[in-house]
Amino acid sequence: MLLRLSKYDLSRRDPRGASCNLRGAGLRTAAGVLLLLAATGLRGLEITLPIETTLLRESPLEGYSLASSLCMTCHSSDYVASQPRTLPPAFWKATVLKMKKAYGAPIPDSAVDPIAAYLEKTYGPEPAPKISSKS
Ligand code: HEC
User: Fold this and answer.
1) Of 1.50.10.10, 2.40.50.140, 1.10.760.10, 3.40.50.2000, which CATH number belongs to 62-123?
2) What pLDDT, in 10s, does the model give residues 8-20?
3) CB atoms within 10 A of CB 91
4) Exposed site from 19, 95, 115, 125, fewest CB < 10 Å?
5) pTM of whole model > 0.85?
């Protein structure tokens, strides 16, 4: 934008002298833009990313480390954690396969079952509360 503006203004030669005004305006604009760049651009951009708070739930199961390295590259664990806890175990295996086949997640065949087992145990249905008859 800046380059195009000044090129246009400088190359324009109007015999009636109008080019002087045009050029003056162009140069003033260019100087203004440069000042603005100097004021804002030279400090450099500092970007602080939020701390990752949505990690997968820890587990001693083999699938935990596999899922942590293979499932968190495209989205956070929110996608996993926000699934209803009433889903049948088959849902998790189907989801892992869907990530692999439909979305191209680089998940080796040998990791599919361990990851599905980990998800099923960790994010599957809660065990039914025990009802004690003595009280
Ligand atoms: C290649 C990128 C990629 C990887 C790696 C990946 N996913 Fe996904 N995932 C997606 C996309 C894309 C969606 C759909 C997003 C949407 O619909 O908004 C999704 C959605 C989901 C959902 C929401 C339910 C659904 O079916 O849409 C779950 C649960 C999920 N992923 C779990 C996983 C698990 C578990 C892994 C590891 C085995 C994984 N993802 C790895 C891309 C990926």
Assistant:
1) 1.10.760.10
2) 444 445 555 444 4
3) 17
4) 125
5) no
